[in-house]
Amino acid sequence: MRQAQMKIIKPKLPLDFQALQKDDLEDGEIYQVAFSEAQFETQKSTLFNGCTFTKVEFFQENGKITEFSDCIFDKCDFSNMDFTHCGFYRCQFNSCKLIGTDFTNAFFQDLLFQENLMNYVNFSSSTLKSVGFNHNIIEESNWISCLFKQVQFEDNELNQANFWETNLKGIDFSSNHFETLEVTPDLCRGIKISLAQAPFFTQLHDINIV
Q: What Pfam families would the database entry show (predicted)?
């Protein structure tokens, strides 16, 4: 399978988070800001463009984040955040904590998730185009009824991940680690697996190896 081509753009950062004015946080659109070791509380629907986030912890009150474009996240904590119906474009997540994060019905294009802790994350009913997952822990995650296009999984911990009703044709699982997955048998034809993974998938189709 050809690797997904992520168009990650390094944002320009003329403004530091500490220099933001109250009005900047309330107008709903934040551009080219470097957030570092901060706690950020969303007060209304917010769009981020060209920002970097380093060791940032997010909280949600009455607001909801609607879109991230051209953003980079390093060592941030998004655990249990609600990103339902959120759009992510040309972003990168590095060594972040995404335990129980809800991405239901979200849209992802040209993203890279690298070395994140993502147990119990929920991508159900989301669309993922040109997205790479490299060296993440994503156990007991949900990917139900997703639309995949050029999605790459490399060396992830995927045990008990649920891909029910998601078409996995062309997905390469061979470098990933799991004992069991939840998949729809008719929708996992054409996947790539390792020899060690073969017994699990042959059982799905009532094939006995003797």
A: Pentapeptide_4
